[in-house]
Every structure is written in C-alpha cells, then in structure tokens.
Design goal:
Protein name: Phospho-N-acetylmuramoyl-pentapeptide-transferase
Largest sheet: 2 strands, antiparallel
Shape: globular
Distance between the termini: 53 Å
Helix content: 55-70%
Cofactor: Mg(2+)
Keywords: Magnesium, Membrane, Metal-binding, Transferase, Transmembrane, Transmembrane helix
Radius of gyration: 22 Å
Subcellular location: Membrane
Membrane topology: Multi-pass membrane protein
Number of helices: 15
Strand order of the largest sheet: 1-2
Amino acid sequence: MFEQIILRSFYFFMGAFFITVILSPPLIFLLKKFKIVRRDDRDFSSIIKTRKSKLGTPVFGGIIIVAVITALTMMFNWHRETTFVPLGVLWLAALLGGADDLLNIFYTKERHPRTLGRIIRFIKFHKNLKYRIWYAITFPWQAYKRVFYLVGSHPGKGVQAHEKIIIQLIIGGIIAWWLSFKLDWTELWLPWLGNIDLGLFIIPVILFLVMLMANAVNITDGIDGLSAGTLIISYSAFFAIALQQGSSDISLLLATIIGTLCGYLLFNIKPAKYQMGDVASLGMGILLTSIAFALDRPILLLVIGMIFIIEIMSVIIQTSWKVLFGKRLFKMAPIHHHLEIQPFDSVFLQDQAFQVLGF
C-alpha cells in the first residue's frame, strides 16, 4: 500500500511538473502581450534600487498553478470527502486574488474611503433624506473600512484589505463547515497531549489560521523564488505526514501541488520570467491550511510555515510600531524588503517615500 502511494505520487508529481514547464512559456507570452505586468505606480517596493529591473515582469502567473492542480485533481484524484473542498477553496481564493491582480493593473482610480467625520456630516445635514438614511445605515461598514486605512492599509485600485478579510472569512467558514459539520471533526491535535475536543470553538481556530496563512503567504510573495521555494518545503513536510498516515488522496494532491510549484519555480528563480501574483499566493496559503486540518495537524503550521509567520509578524510589528511610536522599526516591511535594502540606498531615509507606503 505504502509503495503504491509513493509510486502514484511520483507520477502525479512528474505529470504536474512537466505540464507546468510546457505551458509556462506560452503563458508568459500571453501575459506580456496583454500587458499583465508589474508596474511602478502600485509597486512600492520598486523604490528599492535592486528591484527596478522587476518592473515589466509578467504577473498573474499563478493561474497556471491553480489550473494544473485543478485539472489533474479533477481528472485523476477527485474525491468528495477529501479533495473537493481544498480544491474549491483554492478556486475561491484564486478568484479573489485574480480580481485584485487585474484591478491593480487595469483599473485607473484609487478607492479612497471617506472620513467618518464627513459621513457624520452627511447624516446630519445632507439635503436628501434618502441619502441621510443610507449613510446612517452604512455607517458601521464605513467605520469598518476606515479602521484598515488608519492602521496602514493603503487604498489602492484593487480589492481592498477590508474586502479581502470578509472573503477570507467566508472561505474559512467553508473549511469550518466541511470539518465540523460534514466530517464531524472538532478535535485539535497537540504534540505530547494528543487530541483535544474543542467542540464549536474549533471554528474560530480554523478562521484564524485560514486568514493568517492566506495573508502570510501572500506577503511572502515578494522576492524571486521566495514564496514558491518556501511553499515547496511546507507542502513537502505535509506530504511526509500524509504518507505516514496512509492518506492516499491527500498524498496525491500534495504531490500534484509540489510538482506544479517546482515547474513554476524554474521560471521564477532570479531573474524571474513571471511572478505568481495574488491569484495563487492567497490560494496557496488557504490550501496549505485546509490540508493541515485534513491531516489533523494544523498546529504544525506554526513550525512548517515559520517563514510565513515571520513575514506577516514583521508587517504587524511595523504597523503597530508606527501607530504607537510614530516611526518605523524596519526600513520596510515585510522583512524580506528590509533585508534587501542596501546601506547606500539613501532614498529609504526620506520620510516622504515611506509615507506613500503607509508604514
């Protein structure tokens, strides 16, 4: 049985790898043709001198990762109880990330939120009663949006931070429904302690980890080969766990993911021929979390996904430091940009540039 899983996993890995390698050049051509490329008007990291060459690099390349994983899984590893939901949440996240990528490239206007003071004035003094009622009803939503702006979320052209959080909560809710109600699974495994039944409290744990890993992987996608390389390591660790548990369906899904990422990495190592973009980076984090729960080892995300955790914590620390003390702790967040900055890059000492970044 074990040998059969290993052999089939090898076939899935090689198939995903070669399909990705074969389809990448035409995808790169199409992305360039339709000008789906990195631009400096929304790429704040481009003020780093060493990253100037990244402008014009095709983005949205992660669509090939999503497509290959989907095609091979639906054709050869489709199981309603095991692979259906991970694949479904991958596509939901891909739609969210893809919309963000395309809007940032092609949409022309930035979406600045109104101040709460202005909204309150509309509620009190707007001459049209219908608008006054509308602003009053939507005030909580406007306040929710404003919170993200105040803590440093720069209003761009794409899907806004507050919108991403809502959609990520929906995706996390689907995973929670799948585990808690469909599979009747409410236990959390802890090292040396075994399984602890959390009951319905498993739901907030799932939501937290889904949102954490989705944004952590998304943030890590910032240097050639960084996100793909770390994802290969993380998925490989869970592949070993799946083999140890004898989970054939999940093992084959993981082999497909790893093969696809390896094929993509061939074109993403420095200098990158194309980049993943949000279309895959959001989905990869959520897919990693759903597989961790499917294998009953979500707590290991804190170790296996340590690089992702460090990346997102650097952003949280940077934002908190700026709010509390009025200055930055790192030269730029996430931390891989801080490490990229050279001492002679005096541009980073200018406050104006950092105010644009929102950090």
